[in-house]
Every structure is written in C-alpha cells, then in structure tokens.
Amino acid sequence: MTKFRKLNRPTAHRISMLRTMVSQLVKHERIETTVSKAKEVRRLADNMVQLGKEGTLCAARQAAAFVRGDDVLHKLFTELAYRYKDRAGGYTRMLRTRFRVGDAAPLAYIEFIDRENELRQSKPAAPQPPQREPLDPWARSRITRQFASPKQPKSSSEPED
C-alpha cells in the first residue's frame, strides 16, 4: 500500500475533502490550500488527468466515481485530455505563497500547467545529452590509469639527529 498523508482527519472526511478539492481544481484550474493538502491533491489530480487521457469507458467510470459533477468529468475527458495528450506526466504545479494569518500554516497555489493566466510559465523540455557508446573494460582501465596522479613515495618529515 502506498504512503499518504492523513491530514489529521478521519478516513471518510479526508477522502471527501480530497475528492472535492480535485473537482474544484479541475473546474477552476487553480486553488489555494495548505502545502500538505496540495501535495496530496497533486497526486490525485494527476491520476484523474491520466484517466482522462485514456478515454475508455472503464477510465470514465473510475473518474466518475471519484470527481464530483458531470461538468468536471466532461472537462477532464475533453479539454484536459486534449491539452495534455503529448505530456507524459506532471500536469500540476505547486507554488508556495504565504503563511496563513490565524495559524501560520504554509499556503500554496496548485494549478494546472500549460494554460493561460498561469502564475509561472513552464520550463521548456531539457534536451537529452547524446548517447555515448560504452567502452570496453580494458580501454577504460587504460584511460583511468592515464589520468591518475603518480604515487609519491612516502618521505619522513622528521629530522634525524
């Protein structure tokens, strides 16, 4: 079983809260919440977008069992699935914002990436370094010996009387 945060709530309350937060995130595409809740919502929201990208009847039923509202389900399987069709993962971003006044809890925005009016632009994909062909062990040994510093003989620094 995977690890998850309990968020100081009973199981039913926690699951209900996370379902509502994921549904609101899909509907509004950005919400502000505490950092620990945002980290949990990020996991679940990415799973929902993955189901939307699959587009099968089974995926639609699994997503409908979790998110709240037909409009949210429709947006998940049409708009978000089309937007992230070429992306392999990482559909959400968490940006820490401030500390809440009442209890000094750290707050954060969680938002979908690659949309208009985002708080921070997405970084371009880093190019992959070119693949090097592996060296045979004997050549590798000669190369490392070539660059190794020669061993210095130990000299005693104690003066003799």
Write down the overall geometry: elongated
How far from one another are the termini? 73 Å
How much strand content do the residues show? 5-15%
Radius of gyration: 26 Å
Query: Residue ranges: pLDDT <50 for 5 or more in a row?
Result: none
The averaged pLDDT comes out at 84
Helices, by number, come to 5
Strand order of the largest sheet: 1-3-2
Structural class call reads alpha+beta
Q: What's the oligomerization state?
A: single chain
What is the β-strand count?
A: 3
Helix-strand string: HEHHHEEH
Helix content: 40-55%
Q: Give a short account of the largest sheet.
A: 3 strands, antiparallel
Briefly say what this structure is:
Helix content is 45%, strand content 12%. It has 161 residues and is α+β, with helices and mostly antiparallel strands.
